[in-house]
Structures are given as structure tokens and as C-alpha cells.
From TrEMBL:
Residues 3-76 form the NAD-dependent epimerase/dehydratase domain. Gene3D superfamilies: NAD(P)-binding Rossmann-like Domain. This is NAD-dependent epimerase/dehydratase domain-containing protein. It holds the Pfam family Epimerase.
Length: 78
């Protein structure tokens, strides 16, 4: 199952990412407003696909842009 996690570098997002990886049943796409250089500091970085994105960006097809995930865990906010 492919899961998209928004806000992956946030306080809660980091815990969710680590738990999804621990369960070892998911293809994970992580996204955050933080740059790749910031995301590199997280333990999970090399185990997922990371896409730096501001969800305010005008993405024409959100579903396709994020590689057609089966599930979404939305943790991004300002």
C-alpha cells in the first residue's frame, strides 16, 4: 500500500513516519515544506521517497503529482 504523509518533518509527522517504517507494510511518500537538506536529518529519510512541496503550490493534479497514493495522512498545517 502506498501512503502519502504530509507534514512529515513536523513533530507528529516524524513519529508517524517512524511508526509506518517500523510496521514495514507501506511504500511511503513523504512531503513537507522543509527543504531536502532539512529532511536529510531525519532517521527515516533514506527509507522513503521525499518530495519537498508547499501544499499552497498550484498543483494541477495532486493525485498524480504524488504518484497515486492509496492513503493520505494529512499532518501539514501552518
Amino acid at each position: 500500500m502506498k501512503v502519502l504523509v504530509t507534514g512529515s518533518t513536523g513533530f507528529i509527522g516524524n513519529y508517524v513516519m517512524n511508526e509506518l517504517i517500523r510496521l514495514n507494510n507501506y511504500d511511503i511518500i513523504a512531503t513537507s515544506i522543509d527543504s531536502t537538506e532539512v529532511a536529510l536529518n531525519f532517521e527515516w529519510f533514506n527509507k522513503v521517497k521525499y518530495i519537498q512541496s508547499n501544499l499552497d503550490d498550484k498543483i494541477k493534479n495532486f493525485y498524480t503529482f504524488f504518484e497515486e497514493p492509496d492513503s493520505l495522512i494529512h499532518l501539514a498545517w501552518e
